Task: structure prediction
Amino acid sequence: MTQLSRNSLPQEGSTPAPLLPVPLSFERNWLHDLESKLDKGGPWGDWRLTRLAIQGEQSGLVTSFDELQCMKHLSGLSPLPHQLDTAHKVLFEMSGRAILADEVGLGKTIEAGLVLKEYLVRGLVSKVLILVPASLVLQWVRELNTKFGITAVAQKKSYSWGNDIVVASMDTAKRDPHKELLLSSEFDMLIIDEAHKLKNKKSTNYQFVQQLRKKYCLLLTATPVQNDLGELFNLITLLKPGQLGNQGDFAANFVVDKRQPKNEVQLRGELSKVMIRNRRGEGPVNFTKRKVRNIPLTLSPEEKALYDGVTAFVKDQYQESGGNLSSMLSLVTLQREVCSSRDAVFITLVNLIKKLPADSPKRERMMDLLQSIRTVKTNTKAEKTMELIRDMNEKVIVFTEYRATQEYLLQYFREHGLQCVSYSGGMNRGKKDWMMDLFRGRAQVMIATEAGGEGINLQFCHHMINFDLPWNPMRVEQRIGRVHRLGQQNDVVIYNLSTEGTIEEHILHLLHEKINMFEMVIGGLDVILERFEKKESLEKSLYKIMLEARSDEELRSGLDHIGESLSELSHETRKEIMP
Amino acid sequence: MTLSPLEVRKQVMDYLEATDCSLIEVSPLHVTVKLSPRADRMLTDRPYYWGFVERTGVDPETLSFTFVFDPEKYDSAAAQSPPPSRPPGGLNRPAGAALTSGGTEMEAGADNASAAASGAPPGVSTDPQDSILARYFGIVPALPRIGPGMIRREDVIYGSKRLRQIWAAAKEEGKCLQLFEDPGSRQRTTLFSAAYEPWLGVCYKVEMTCDLKREELHFIGISLATGKITEDFGSRLNALELTPRLPENIHIQPYEMNVAAGADRLESYLTSQLAALDYTWAEEARERLRLELSIVDIYYEELLKEPDEEKKQAIEEQYNRRRKETAWQYEPQIAVSAVTYGLFHLRST
Result:
């Protein structure tokens, strides 16, 4: 068809464009497309498809500035009310820069996914960088793809960065050549999981994140301020420098000393502008119950002798060193290990001996201890654990603090025909995933050390055995959080092994009776600890009491004292949380 | 707004029909379809395969899918009744498949067996996330598991990737148009040729952005003969019968302006429409921006007192970066793009 175009007509009726209060831009590539097709005579589109395309646009149109759109794009995911609230707040009150600091197990990943999805749906975000610990990379990719229909890609090779939505480990990203590449790009959104690792502003991680160019930013952490206000300030500065004023203002307005805030109400007000923290006790989140079974054990005479020997040795050393706690840490470890397994004590002891000068008087005493290790033939705890596992006949995770104990248990269980796998922090990503899969499938038992605690989700298992206990309640909580989290269908049964007449018994008493932590679905543990630890960490206080007590009596009264103040604090906190 | 399964079904069926796909089995809950080459190219993400077909000239083997629109109902229906029978020797198992791809046959067989055991409808693959690749990449797109002879089930609901993809494909193939109003059969036998008026029609998408966003669609048309502008041009077109071929016995009125001039006028018209909107949102966004910037300024003011030149420079850099980021985040703006556009020759009234 010939075009009869007369370009002569003056543009009558076209008034000069009225001024908008906002910059306006027209994309005009379509005009070139149309003109060139007119020149060439096609090819032309199909009207039915055109109508389809318009209907598609219409249905996805963001018709309102302030209404969550993402839910209609998500099927098969029903977020909990507090998660939706969080997404809403991040978008409409915090403009997309926030610290998500829910307690463990409340679904921070879901919240971040919702926020990301919302921005994607709105077309405000296309280029996204997600930095997480290496062990969580695949889990993030999987969740974003399956739960949110977001095509995220795990960073494997340098060309992976070319994708729009990349999940990478912080350790990879901050190194060259990746670092340079990332610093020269712009990200519509940056998400960082386990962000409490960014508390030190001198660290390379911190400076790297500070230099990244980002529009929206989410920092995820379950433990935002354990007990240092300076660290909190750094974290917020990363997100929104100046939100708490400059360093001087902050110090003057909010800090008494490192651990003690002032003007708490005001501080909390400021914090709530950048940080969202949901707690277990709030909202209609239904968690299953926690059932606690404390299993008292009596040590065999040989084990008891070893325990007493180590205890006496540790105490004497402490007296000799003149009460210097920091040099005593390896000995404290020894004391704790003796409650776990002889293997653990053995390794630490041998290492200590190696470090001693050849003529040290301690040497002989330690060799004696080694001899008494040799006399221990049985492990009462391992036997009991075995019995428990046989009785429950279901999947179970066993936690221990020590690699040596882990190795021992692995061997012991295998000898007795149990299918079991190990899981520890030192494993590489692939192996960890492999172990998780084995546990999900064939294996009945997983033996995990503390380092393996973070970020593994084991909702399919509802038994856990604390073979030994960390002295830091937050770490105990993290252990429980692996199985007792959203998605757990059954009541979680927690078995605590405690040997009578040892320090372990006291610790368990403290954690269980005084903080009531095993059954505490309500949360608030961090508040209790923060308040308790204003002066000194709980772990350290426990060490001191243990080392300084000259008799069982003294030990008990010291621990009781701590117990009293803890239970007082927990009553207080509970009242605040649930008036 | 969201779409019900029935509405989604309509969208998908329209697409399949428009792209000449062959429907194997249809119910209100699902459709089993063998894609046409055209749809296969757009939907299956197999550029290498299609490159191979183009270079060697072999007959393309397109993929088949079962799209399920209401998974819940479909599953419960499938659980009650025996699996729907397919035409024997039909597209499910092409005659040549047994010879050329024994491997896929076996895989398909195994798949069906396991699916039958778990009571799921046939064609459902076992969890693809169990593979070794999934362990390495976190997620594996399910596509590599399909080949000729296998029909993959996919749930197509509002928000699913497939539906988004179908819309994108429809836009890609349907964005640029030249159409004529069908004059009806009587026009051919009439003595006088009918006068047709050329219209430029554009469906504009207006994106109002700050740290938040709102969108509007404006389908407007301008007569290139008279300069008259019609709002809601889309519904006018929807009421008409349109054909891509130039009908007989009609003539097109002379253009008073070319397409580019028409586009100019549409743009200034749209601009004046937009000018009448409420811009409180932009004011508020600017207010937020001002506040944020003042916070940033206060923070860096003290840091910039740093005496060490080198350190000061680094801080200054950081300061500027943060200011830029903030503006990027909040600065209000409006961007207008065209979803579809074309030339429409409509009977003069």
